[in-house]
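To make this tangible, this section ends with a sequence with its structure tokens:
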Amino acid sequence: MVDPWGHDAAWRDTRFAALESHYQGQYGRLEESGQGCYRLTPLGAWAASIPGHVYRFFRELHLEQQRLFIDLGSGDGLVACIAGLFTRAVGIEIDRQLCCRASRAIRELDLQARVAVICGDYRSHQVRRADCLYLYPDKPVADLEALLAGWQGTLLVAGPHFPLQCFAPVKRLTIGRDQLVAYRAVKSEQ
């Protein structure tokens, strides 16, 4: 399938190889410096994801069918950049240092036409405009569920997490220890 710009899977595979190399180099430098690929942010924690797993999840979900993807708490921009190989993607991150890393990656990978990063709290942005939201939570997400009341998009939740109350799982994907669950809003009985 082609993306909104007319690119196919072969184009994505080639661009992903460059993206994966970029982030593996970045993570190697972080490990060598002693910083590691984990940090606390003002609203939670960031940890690096495995690029190949995220890419395979998005291929399996046919992310190119989505109009706008927003990564809530996007860290260093890895997930938003991978999503940008499929559709228009925005990352929202509150930690300034991580926002700078994401912006640098977007420039170095020449993804400015497809990916943007916003430095701020996603709760103060119009995330409901997206038809696909992504989150790797480090705590229960009841506040997000309340924010999304009535929203009809797809919510992708990565990693182990507490069950959601207002969304029902429609697809579960697992690679090794990584998990991604696609949720849709539960239809209310009226």
In short: The chain has a mean pLDDT of 94. The beta strands are 38-41, 44-47, 68-72, 88-93, 115-119, 132-135, 154-158, 167-175, 178-185. Residues 9-33 form the longest helix (25 residues). The two ends are 37 Å apart (CA to CA).
